[in-house]
């Protein structure tokens, strides 16, 4: 199924990715930098990232079908190259968002803290800082690669 009502599926699916990847990245950055946002967003950040992650292979597959119909061009190849990289940013974004959520979820931390000796509490803080930095870096990277992919896709359509 590469079309809906005669329209190519890729331009329709790409809107899911273009909205949810930046949204989940911004939610992740807010959760790391702003404790009040972290409390309010809760499990929502990993869930939005999961939907974006699920939409990616569908969008990529539909894009490959559209590429076969349109034919090869340098602009489309550039766009496809960027598009293939998005999964390498959104996958870690989802994984890190889940770990960040679990690290700050009271039920999860209560269960984990019962098994960890008090002497390693300092190392837990270091892990949280490193995880927060990694999450922000991956979120920024995913914002960048989605921008580059979308920009190259628009250029391929309009040139």
From TrEMBL:
<feature type="transmembrane region" description="Helical">
    <location>
        <begin position="41"/>
        <end position="59"/>
    </location>
</feature>
<feature type="transmembrane region" description="Helical">
    <location>
        <begin position="12"/>
        <end position="34"/>
    </location>
</feature>
<feature type="transmembrane region" description="Helical">
    <location>
        <begin position="86"/>
        <end position="105"/>
    </location>
</feature>
<keyword id="KW-0812">Transmembrane</keyword>
<feature type="transmembrane region" description="Helical">
    <location>
        <begin position="126"/>
        <end position="147"/>
    </location>
</feature>
<protein>
    <recommendedName>
        <fullName>DUF2231 domain-containing protein</fullName>
    </recommendedName>
</protein>
<keyword id="KW-1133">Transmembrane helix</keyword>
<keyword id="KW-0472">Membrane</keyword>
<feature type="domain" description="DUF2231">
    <location>
        <begin position="6"/>
        <end position="159"/>
    </location>
</feature>
<dbReference type="Pfam" id="PF09990">
    <property type="entry name" value="DUF2231"/>
</dbReference>
<dbReference type="InterPro" id="IPR019251">
    <property type="entry name" value="DUF2231_TM"/>
</dbReference>
């Amino acid at each position: 199924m590469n079309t809906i009502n005669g329209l190519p599926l890729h331009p329709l699916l790409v809107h899911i990715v273009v909205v949810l990847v930046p949204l989940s990245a911004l939610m992740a950055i807010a959760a790391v930098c702003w404790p009040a946002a972290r409390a309010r967003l809760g499990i929502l950040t990993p869930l939005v990232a999961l939907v974006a992650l699920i939409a990616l292979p569908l969008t990529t597959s539909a894009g490959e079908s559209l590429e076969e119909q349109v034919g090869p061009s340098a602009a489309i190849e550039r766009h496809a190259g960027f598009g293939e990289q998005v999964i390498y940013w959104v996958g870690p974004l989802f994984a890190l968002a889940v770990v960040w959520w679990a690290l700050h979820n009271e039920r999860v931390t209560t269960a984990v803290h019962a098994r960890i000796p008090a002497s390693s509490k300092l190392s837990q803080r270091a892990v949280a800082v490193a995880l927060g930095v990694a999450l922000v870096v991956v979120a920024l990277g995913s914002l960048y690669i989605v921008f580059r992919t979308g920009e190259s896709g628009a250029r391929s359509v309009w040139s």
